[in-house]
Specification:
Chain lengths: 73, 496
Amino acid sequence: MKEIVEVLNEVKPGVDYLKEENLITGGILSSFDLVMLIAMLNDKFNINITVVDLVPENFENVKSIENLVNKLK
Amino acid sequence: MSYASLNFLILVIVLMCFYYVCPKKYRWIILLLGNIYFFMSLSGKLIIYSLIATIITYALTILLESSKKNKKKILILNIFLVLAFLLVLKYDNFFLSLLNPIINLVGLKIPYKKFILPIGISYYTLEMIAYSVDVYRKKVKAETNFLKLFTFFTYFPKLIEGPISKYSEMKEKMFSSNCFDYEKFKNAWVLIGYGFIKKMIIADRLGIFVDKIFEQNIIGLPLILAVIFYTIQIYCDFSGCIDIVSGVSELFGINLPVNFKRPFFSTSIQEFWTRWHITLGAWLKEYIFYPISLSKLNMKLNMKVRKIKFKHLARFITIAFPLLFVWLVNGLWHGASIKYVTYGLYYYLLMMLGVLFKPILDFIVKKLKINTEVWSYKLFKILRTILIVCIGMLLFRSDSLTQFTLLFKGLFSFTMPKKITEFGLVYKDFRLVFFYILIIFGVELAGELKVNVREKLNEQNLIFRWLVYIFIIFSILIFGVYGYGFDAKSFIYGGF
């Protein structure tokens, strides 16, 4: 979880990611941020997040991102 | 038959009667019949194009779902075939105008041919592509009832101007047993009335002034006014139409997706495009921006740039290529001409500049200790966005790039007209438009403050509610701009 928060902070600093529950539907992460986030997650965890995985539920909060990463590992 | 016409309202009322009398299980068939009647009354035999495109999509998505090895090939074939109709019928002359100068070098020339477009082709083609991609991505199951799919693609309220809808989000409401709900019925008519006010009192009236200025290439203050008026006109025309069709759809118990979310409260261009023509923006994002952004090539590029420690440049380069496609398609979707391509590229350039200079702007804001949270700074950002949109609208409204260049220079000319009433509107019209714009602004502001005006209206006493209903009806009857046969002017976005 710590590593995901680090990546998120690198993509868009200044957000309390451990508290935020609606990163996508709340408009905190833009589509540009999301593309950067996926590129960095792919790189860091050696995974391949594809368009099929690109649903709000997978990126709404740190926990859901962690679940996605674990699923694709 | 325009959405803002008496004939359309009669059709809606007749369909509604049949819809709620019909057994629940078969109600969608009334919609199907309504769709066919509406389509044929506007495009006659050209309905065959949408029928063939639906047959292709229907057959290929079923095949795609059952296929194990050739899913991608079937999807590409589906997209190619459906897109071919649009490309040939709408864009043939545009592509020929680019191709002919090249093949002229070897003495060849392909003759130009003008096709009549079936109504709504730009909208239902995007919906068909979205549907087949969603089946491929397993977001929706391939529909096995052909007539249901045809009912969705040709659904008459959204046929001409959208909103661009997704089958996965609409099918439940469209094919479930919707019961008549008096509350929804009342709310729907308020929305329809609100749409008619936007269209017939504001948009069509401002259009008279705007047309005169652009026809005569008037410059100076009247042109500045015309650009502002056109921005208001196109918003009231398009969002008014969406209000009317959303209200009509609600009469059948079917909610259409939201297409406008108070765009003129946006603080940036990026935000503006998430609030204006939302369904087109969402389509472009989901089916063009993300697939190109997340392609292996683009991801590799991102990784390489990040490795040389240019984090900010990595963001710029990663989105530069996908976004170029998004804006090219956005421009071309609006029309087959260089003007619309330039319109798309105008926003592309602005967005890319915004991304490129963001660190510098952030640095300036920090150094100057500008408080970005105060309302005055937000207002500044809103006004800056409106200014950018207005210039975009000048390009959008101009007949050609030549006229745009001429008029853009004309914005800085200090020419004063003898009288502002020389351009088709008298002072009474200006006062009237101003009054109704204030009402629209009030409703939009309430929306920004998370107040649902229709719900609030329902909470009021009977007398007040009826005063509002009567105000809406008489406003449209007395102050609406009427054309031949008491119909409103055609909707601008219907032309796309």
